[in-house]
């Protein structure tokens, strides 16, 4: 009988040791799972995710160029007008983002991100949407002036489309769209980790950030009078 009790006691002790070991491993695993990562680690992971995307298209806009060229030869004149729509993409080369372009300020809960310069891709022209018109003149019918004027108009129209794309208003819209997209990409995982960050994004050719203000936690607590709807 005593032998049986000793065996049972040994089994119970062994079970308790195994259970304790499993509980300890489980606690350590849960601790690793639920322990929040540092803001720097989260920001680095977000940076790597953006770099993997390679390109960010902030804005796609269509412009229309209207140009006219004329030519005079042999005492004759010719004129051609070209209407050419073109699409331009405003992009950020995320692969150029360097680790030192992202900086976390712990005392102010502020993350600063510096983007490479905004790029313009295009213009992309659909020949089927181009329209050319004669301005009159015998020279168009007697020489190769038509082809020469069309080629000149095409080059001038491309220059005009780029000029329109680089105007202050569309450039400002594209920059702001890029800033918002990048800021959201960094802010969401930081907020998911329980932080309340301020994410500031600028382009490398823009002025530097001012010194961030000290962090002031948001007071989300309510007094007992507010909880129970009591008035003073």
How much is the radius of gyration in Å? 33 Å
**How would you sum up the major sheet?**
4 strands, antiparallel
Taking pLDDT < 50 over at least 5 consecutive residues as the criterion, the unreliable ranges are 1-35, 219-228
Q: If you average the pLDDT, what whole number results?
A: 78
Q: Structural class given helices, strands, pairing?
A: alpha+beta
Instruction: Note the quaternary state here.
Output: single chain
The string of secondary-structure elements, in order, is HHEEEEEEHHHEH
Q: Number of helical segments?
A: 6
Gross morphology = rod-shaped
| Residue share in helix | 40-55%
SSE order and pairing:
Blueprint: H1 2-34, H2 39-53, E1 55-73, E2 76-93, E3 102-105, E4 110-115, E5 119-124, E6 131-134, H3 139-142, H4 145-165, H5 168-192, E7 198-203, H6 224-227
Parallel strand pairs: 4-7
Antiparallel strand pairs: 1-2, 2-5, 2-6, 3-4
Helix pairs in contact: 2-5
Question: Can you give a write-up of this model?
Answer:
- This protein is α+β, with helices and mostly antiparallel strands and 232 residues long.
- The chain is 44% helix and 27% strand.
- The protein has helices at residues 2-34, 39-53, 139-142, 145-165, 168-192, 224-227, and strands at residues 55-73, 76-93, 102-105, 110-115, 119-124, 131-134, 198-203.
- Strands 1, 2, 5 and 6 form a four-stranded antiparallel beta sheet that branches. Strands 3-4-7 form a three-stranded mixed beta sheet, with helices on one face.
- Strand 3 and strand 4 form a beta hairpin.
- 21% of the residues are buried.
